[in-house]
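Dissemination and training. As part of the outreach component of the grant, students in the summer workshop were shown how a complex can be specified as a set of sequence lines and then modelled as a single object. The example used during the hands-on session is reproduced here so that future cohorts can follow it. Participants entered these lines:
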Amino acid sequence: GENVEQHPSTLSVQEGDSAVIKCTYSDSASNYFPWYKQELGKGPQLIIDIRSNVGEKKDQRIAVTLNKTAKHFSLHITETQPEDSAVYFCAASMGEYGNKLVFGAGTILRVKS
Amino acid sequence: DADVTQTPRNRITKTGKRIMLECSQTKGHDRMYWYRQDPGLGLRLIYYSFDVKDINKGEISDGYSVSRQAQAKFSLSLESAIPNQTALYFCATRTPGNTEAFFGQGTRLTVV
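and obtained this result:
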């Protein structure tokens, strides 16, 4: 079936430490992998995405890595800050022409100051 | 104004009632989606539409129906609401291809 598994479900880190969230997807044809951040009372917002022709992408303190062979991708946040506290979702494109985004179950990240 | 607007933002309804959630967008995107969010289950796809004449079921379409009234409007209906449809509902839009999805602010629905 079409699914994305995401771990861990909750993650607590000390301010300044790094946070890593991992996802595994089922469809080997998936070629687009976005990450979304959801703050309380808001809709998810894209923070970074990666396409299958790239193994790693960075944007300031955020990076995403992709291993297509293993069907794994991960989000790395360095030098975490209290404002990074939120729910994070990974997703993978699936279906005909990748028209559907299938989401993981989400990770609640708490950054303790 | 928000690019993707959902109404209402909150709704409490009784079991067996029909309810409609509305979504409108100003981004000019062809593709529109309805997702349901439950704690620990992430965002699950209910229905999606690529244009006014193209409606597709997602993974959890039972108990729901949709209407694409125009390119900019996509409504989700619960014909006879039941308590396990209590959830946070999100509308999203995308352009074709591997592109970002833009989400509305969500509708919190409670069925009592």
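The mean pLDDT of chain B is 95. Students were then asked to discuss how this feature might be tested experimentally.
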